[in-house]
Amino acid sequence: MVRKNLELAFPKQSDAYYKKLEKQFYHYFVRNFLEMAKTAHISGSTLASLNRFSNVDEINKYLREGKSVILAFGHHNNWVWPMILSEMVNAPVYMVYRQLANKHIDGWLRNNRCAPNVIYVEKKSTARYFLKAAKEQQPSVFMMVADQSPSSDKGIHWVDFMNIKTPFYRGIEFFATKFNMPVFFTETICTKKYNYEHTFRLIYDGTEKVKEGIITQRFASALEEAVKKQPGNYLWSHKRWKKIIEYE
Length: 248
Known about the structure:
Shape: globular
Number of helices: 8
Strand order of the largest sheet: 1-9-8-2-5-3-4
CATH class: Alpha Beta
Order of helices and strands: HHHEHEEHEHEEEHEEH
Number of domains: 1
Strand content: 15-25%
Mean pLDDT: 91
Largest sheet: 7 strands, mixed
Helix content: 25-40%
CATH architecture: 3-Layer(aba) Sandwich
Number of strands: 9
């Protein structure tokens, strides 16, 4: 599956090129697993020292104005450790996620001690928390991983991603336009082993009038740009294009 995805995303490359990216991916995959495991044991101060946020002020500016924001992530590099941002902003931080089947692992994830201020929101309950923040006029941060492969044809937009027409959930676009919330793509770059730099790129300011699908396309384009900077560090092991090809 990894090779198939790489061939789709980077067509007409040499066998040596694909083997190099495959090797980088498997190194990344193991490191990512180890980083997730470390989350249960390290302190918040240690996690903060491993993650550098280059422009948190951009987030705080909107929060000071009384506006909630959406931080959109892809499965590139480490998409969990940025939750330490919850210790750096003066606002509730919600991590939207899909509840895990294993209740022990799910509880471990939600009760980690390195970022105790994160509020985990099961995907099915997302709308309730957006409504809560709006009703209470409480500026909040919503962190959403937004590049999963949709399981159905409902609630999706087809956009260009890695030069392939690809379905994306429209969740970030739906909530952003409904509640007039700015959206930042969160670019995460590995600077060295276990160290990351996160940069927030504004892709929607909460007021712009845009056609349907534009915000989703901007997210996909920003993610593609980030992936191309460190192509081995994307989650190539999932069936991202299962709606257009058959995986063995």
